[in-house]
Design brief:
Layout (H helix, E strand, L loop, with lengths): L1 H60 L1 H17 L4 H6 L20
Length: 109
């Protein structure tokens, strides 16, 4: 019985060593893959950076014009409530203005 348990222990020990080697190989492969991906991502970012800086520069130059346009849209949305869903779709909030009642109209109760 002692030889059976010794052979089982030896088999388990060999299996643990094989699994340990496999774990080291898989970990090393994953590390190399992630390092390569990081390196490629940094190169991609550096390649796109000039284009992004141009877009950001153009946005900063046109910031006041865009703000004025949005203000005009809000003013239009206040005068025309049916346009409010379009503004809401793009995240532009219109402060509600109560509708003006025509003269001589009786408010509903």
């Amino acid at each position: 019985m002692n030889s059976d348990s010794d052979s089982e222990i030896a088999a388990l020990r060999n299996q643990v060593y094989v699994l340990l080697v496999a774990l080291i190989v898989v970990s090393g492969t994953l590390t190399v893959f992630l390092y390569r991906q990081t390196s490629l991502t940094h190169k991609d970012i550096e390649a796109v950076r000039p284009q992004a800086e141009q877009v950001i520069g153009a946005l900063n130059q046109n910031k006041q014009a865009i703000g004025g346009f949005v203000e005009q849209l809000v003013a239009y949305g206040q005068k025309h409530p049916e346009f409010a869903p379009v503004l809401a779709k793009y995240g532009i909030s219109v402060k509600s203005v109560p509708p003006v009642m025509p003269s001589g109209a009786i408010p509903a109760k």
